[in-house]
Protein backbone atom coordinates (compact mmCIF):
# COMPACT_ATOMS: atom_id res chain seq x y z
CA UNK A 1 0.00 0.00 0.00
CA UNK A 2 1.15 3.54 -0.76
CA UNK A 3 0.68 4.58 2.86
CA UNK A 4 3.36 2.09 3.93
CA UNK A 5 6.08 3.50 1.67
CA UNK A 6 8.72 5.63 3.48
CA UNK A 7 8.94 9.30 2.54
CA UNK A 8 12.51 8.88 1.29
CA UNK A 9 11.28 6.26 -1.20
CA UNK A 10 8.28 8.36 -2.23
CA UNK A 11 10.63 11.18 -3.23
CA UNK A 12 12.45 8.83 -5.62
CA UNK A 13 9.41 7.24 -7.29
CA UNK A 14 8.94 10.02 -9.86
CA UNK A 15 12.62 9.73 -10.86
CA UNK A 16 12.27 5.97 -11.29
CA UNK A 17 9.12 6.34 -13.37
CA UNK A 18 10.69 8.96 -15.65
CA UNK A 19 13.72 6.73 -16.15
CA UNK A 20 11.59 3.72 -17.12
CA UNK A 21 9.52 5.83 -19.51
CA UNK A 22 12.76 6.88 -21.21
CA UNK A 23 13.89 3.25 -21.37
CA UNK A 24 10.58 2.28 -22.96
CA UNK A 25 10.94 5.06 -25.52
CA UNK A 26 14.39 3.67 -26.37
CA UNK A 27 12.78 0.22 -26.75
CA UNK A 28 14.79 -1.22 -23.88
CA UNK A 29 12.93 -4.31 -22.65
CA UNK A 30 14.92 -5.21 -19.54
CA UNK A 31 17.51 -3.58 -17.27
CA UNK A 32 19.65 -4.80 -14.37
CA UNK A 33 19.63 -2.89 -11.08
CA UNK A 34 23.35 -2.18 -11.54
CA UNK A 35 22.71 -0.59 -14.94
CA UNK A 36 19.82 1.38 -13.50
CA UNK A 37 22.06 2.53 -10.65
CA UNK A 38 24.61 3.95 -13.08
CA UNK A 39 21.89 5.67 -15.08
CA UNK A 40 20.23 7.55 -12.21
CA UNK A 41 22.98 7.73 -9.58
CA UNK A 42 21.22 5.72 -6.85
CA UNK A 43 22.90 2.63 -5.41
CA UNK A 44 21.53 -0.78 -6.36
CA UNK A 45 20.58 -1.77 -2.81
CA UNK A 46 18.42 1.34 -2.44
CA UNK A 47 16.75 0.69 -5.78
CA UNK A 48 15.93 -2.90 -4.87
CA UNK A 49 14.59 -1.84 -1.46
CA UNK A 50 12.47 0.94 -3.00
CA UNK A 51 11.02 -1.38 -5.64
CA UNK A 52 10.16 -4.00 -3.01
CA UNK A 53 7.37 -1.69 -1.83
CA UNK A 54 5.74 -1.94 -5.26
CA UNK A 55 5.64 -5.72 -5.42
CA UNK A 56 7.70 -8.42 -7.10
CA UNK A 57 9.10 -6.40 -10.01
CA UNK A 58 12.38 -8.16 -10.72
CA UNK A 59 14.40 -11.30 -10.19
CA UNK A 60 18.00 -11.67 -9.10
CA UNK A 61 20.23 -12.09 -12.12
CA UNK A 62 17.39 -11.22 -14.49
CA UNK A 63 16.70 -7.60 -13.71
CA UNK A 64 13.55 -5.57 -14.30
CA UNK A 65 11.24 -5.75 -17.29
CA UNK A 66 10.57 -2.15 -18.28
CA UNK A 67 6.88 -2.59 -19.14
CA UNK A 68 6.21 -4.54 -15.93
CA UNK A 69 7.70 -1.75 -13.83
CA UNK A 70 5.74 0.92 -15.71
CA UNK A 71 2.51 -0.99 -15.19
CA UNK A 72 3.30 -1.16 -11.46
CA UNK A 73 3.67 2.62 -11.37
CA UNK A 74 0.41 3.06 -13.25
CA UNK A 75 -1.36 0.77 -10.79
CA UNK A 76 -0.04 3.01 -8.04
CA UNK A 77 -0.81 6.37 -9.67
CA UNK A 78 -4.02 5.31 -11.45
CA UNK A 79 -3.62 7.82 -14.36
CA UNK A 80 -6.93 6.66 -15.84
CA UNK A 81 -8.64 8.21 -12.80
CA UNK A 82 -6.91 11.57 -13.23
CA UNK A 83 -7.50 14.25 -10.62
CA UNK A 84 -8.44 17.73 -11.82
CA UNK A 85 -5.75 20.38 -11.48
CA UNK A 86 -5.76 24.13 -12.12
CA UNK A 87 -2.95 26.59 -12.77
CA UNK A 88 -3.02 29.87 -10.87
CA UNK A 89 -0.78 32.45 -12.52
CA UNK A 90 -0.47 32.39 -16.29
CA UNK A 91 2.70 34.43 -16.73
CA UNK A 92 5.81 33.25 -18.54
CA UNK A 93 6.35 30.31 -16.19
CA UNK A 94 2.68 29.35 -16.27
CA UNK A 95 2.54 29.39 -20.06
CA UNK A 96 5.70 27.29 -20.24
CA UNK A 97 4.06 24.73 -17.96
CA UNK A 98 0.92 24.63 -20.11
CA UNK A 99 3.04 24.00 -23.19
CA UNK A 100 5.01 21.31 -21.37
CA UNK A 101 1.93 19.43 -20.16
CA UNK A 102 0.40 19.67 -23.63
CA UNK A 103 3.24 17.61 -25.05
CA UNK A 104 2.26 14.50 -26.99
CA UNK A 105 4.29 12.32 -24.63
CA UNK A 106 1.74 12.88 -21.86
CA UNK A 107 -0.95 11.36 -24.08
CA UNK A 108 0.78 7.98 -24.06
CA UNK A 109 -0.85 5.59 -21.60
CA UNK A 110 2.37 4.57 -19.87
CA UNK A 111 3.42 8.18 -19.27
CA UNK A 112 0.09 9.81 -18.52
CA UNK A 113 0.19 11.91 -15.37
CA UNK A 114 -2.43 11.21 -12.68
CA UNK A 115 -3.38 14.89 -12.76
CA UNK A 116 -5.39 16.54 -15.53
CA UNK A 117 -4.75 20.27 -16.03
CA UNK A 118 -8.20 21.72 -16.76
CA UNK A 119 -8.05 25.52 -16.35
CA UNK A 120 -5.84 28.53 -15.71
CA UNK A 121 -6.53 31.62 -13.59
CA UNK A 122 -5.07 35.11 -13.71
CA UNK A 123 -5.99 38.78 -13.11
CA UNK A 124 -4.64 39.95 -16.47
CA UNK A 125 -7.75 41.00 -18.41
CA UNK A 126 -5.94 40.41 -21.71
CA UNK A 127 -5.68 36.71 -20.81
CA UNK A 128 -9.11 36.17 -19.27
CA UNK A 129 -11.49 34.51 -21.69
CA UNK A 130 -8.64 33.32 -23.88
CA UNK A 131 -7.15 29.85 -24.37
CA UNK A 132 -3.52 28.82 -24.16
CA UNK A 133 -3.52 25.78 -26.37
CA UNK A 134 -6.67 24.02 -25.20
CA UNK A 135 -6.54 25.43 -21.67
CA UNK A 136 -9.25 28.02 -20.86
CA UNK A 137 -8.20 31.03 -18.78
CA UNK A 138 -10.54 32.51 -16.15
CA UNK A 139 -10.37 35.51 -13.85
CA UNK A 140 -9.06 34.85 -10.36
CA UNK A 141 -12.37 36.17 -8.97
CA UNK A 142 -14.02 32.98 -10.26
CA UNK A 143 -11.51 30.67 -8.55
CA UNK A 144 -13.60 29.42 -5.61
CA UNK A 145 -16.75 28.77 -7.60
CA UNK A 146 -14.84 26.94 -10.35
CA UNK A 147 -13.07 24.68 -7.85
CA UNK A 148 -16.31 23.74 -6.12
CA UNK A 149 -18.32 23.22 -9.32
CA UNK A 150 -15.61 21.19 -11.08
CA UNK A 151 -14.30 19.17 -8.13
CA UNK A 152 -10.71 20.37 -8.50
CA UNK A 153 -8.26 18.66 -6.12
CA UNK A 154 -4.81 19.97 -7.12
CA UNK A 155 -3.33 23.41 -7.77
CA UNK A 156 -0.15 24.62 -9.45
CA UNK A 157 0.67 27.99 -7.91
CA UNK A 158 2.80 30.16 -10.20
CA UNK A 159 1.96 33.65 -8.92
CA UNK A 160 4.39 36.37 -7.74
CA UNK A 161 5.75 35.82 -4.20
CA UNK A 162 3.95 38.81 -2.67
CA UNK A 163 0.50 37.40 -3.42
CA UNK A 164 1.22 33.69 -2.99
CA UNK A 165 0.12 33.42 0.64
CA UNK A 166 -3.14 35.30 0.03
CA UNK A 167 -4.02 33.04 -2.90
CA UNK A 168 -3.02 29.91 -0.98
CA UNK A 169 -5.18 30.89 1.99
CA UNK A 170 -8.17 31.35 -0.32
CA UNK A 171 -7.87 27.68 -1.31
CA UNK A 172 -8.55 26.39 2.19
CA UNK A 173 -11.86 24.64 2.73
CA UNK A 174 -12.43 24.02 -0.98
CA UNK A 175 -11.40 20.36 -1.09
CA UNK A 176 -7.90 20.95 -2.45
CA UNK A 177 -5.59 18.03 -1.64
CA UNK A 178 -2.25 19.36 -2.85
CA UNK A 179 -0.45 22.49 -4.07
CA UNK A 180 2.67 22.56 -6.22
CA UNK A 181 4.13 25.90 -5.14
CA UNK A 182 6.34 27.55 -7.77
CA UNK A 183 6.01 31.07 -6.34
CA UNK A 184 9.54 31.19 -4.83
CA UNK A 185 8.24 31.83 -1.32
CA UNK A 186 7.07 29.55 1.47
CA UNK A 187 3.30 29.35 1.96
CA UNK A 188 1.36 28.13 4.98
CA UNK A 189 -2.00 26.42 4.66
CA UNK A 190 -4.18 24.11 6.75
CA UNK A 191 -2.93 20.59 7.46
CA UNK A 192 -5.43 18.98 5.08
CA UNK A 193 -3.55 20.45 2.10
CA UNK A 194 -0.14 19.03 1.21
CA UNK A 195 2.27 21.62 -0.22
CA UNK A 196 5.26 20.70 -2.37
CA UNK A 197 7.68 23.61 -2.65
CA UNK A 198 9.74 23.98 -5.84
CA UNK A 199 11.98 27.05 -5.97
CA UNK A 200 14.05 27.01 -9.17
CA UNK A 201 16.53 29.56 -7.81
CA UNK A 202 17.08 27.46 -4.68
CA UNK A 203 17.59 24.37 -6.82
CA UNK A 204 20.20 26.21 -8.86
CA UNK A 205 21.95 27.45 -5.70
CA UNK A 206 21.92 23.89 -4.35
CA UNK A 207 23.67 22.77 -7.52
CA UNK A 208 26.30 25.47 -7.01
CA UNK A 209 26.87 24.32 -3.41
CA UNK A 210 27.30 20.70 -4.54
CA UNK A 211 29.81 21.75 -7.21
CA UNK A 212 31.67 23.99 -4.76
CA UNK A 213 31.91 21.17 -2.21
CA UNK A 214 33.15 18.68 -4.80
CA UNK A 215 35.83 21.09 -6.01
CA UNK A 216 36.96 21.77 -2.44
CA UNK A 217 37.28 18.04 -1.74
CA UNK A 218 39.52 17.67 -4.78
CA UNK A 219 42.04 20.18 -3.42
Automatic annotation (TrEMBL):
UniProt key word Zinc-finger: no
Keyword Metal-binding: no
Protein family membership: Belongs to the transcriptional regulatory Rex family.
Signal peptide: none
Its biological purpose: Modulates transcription in response to changes in cellular NADH/NAD(+) redox state.
Main location: cytoplasm
Record protein name field: Redox-sensing transcriptional repressor Rex
Domain CoA-binding: 79-186
SMART domains membership: CoA_binding
Binding site for NAD(+): 89-94
DNA-binding region, residue range(s): 15-54
Organism: Turicibacter faecis
Oligomer and partners: Homodimer.
Keyword vocabulary terms for this entry: Cytoplasm, DNA-binding, NAD, Repressor, Transcription, Transcription regulation
Compartment list: Cytoplasm
Gene3D superfamilies: NAD(P)-binding Rossmann-like Domain, Winged helix-like DNA-binding domain superfamily/Winged helix DNA-binding domain
Amino acid sequence: MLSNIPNATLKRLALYRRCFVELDEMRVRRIQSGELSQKIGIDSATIRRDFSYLGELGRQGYGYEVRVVLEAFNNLLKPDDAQRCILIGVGNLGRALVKYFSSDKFKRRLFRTPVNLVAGFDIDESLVGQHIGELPIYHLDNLSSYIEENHVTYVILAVPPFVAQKVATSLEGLGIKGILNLSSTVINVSEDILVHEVDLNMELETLFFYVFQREQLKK
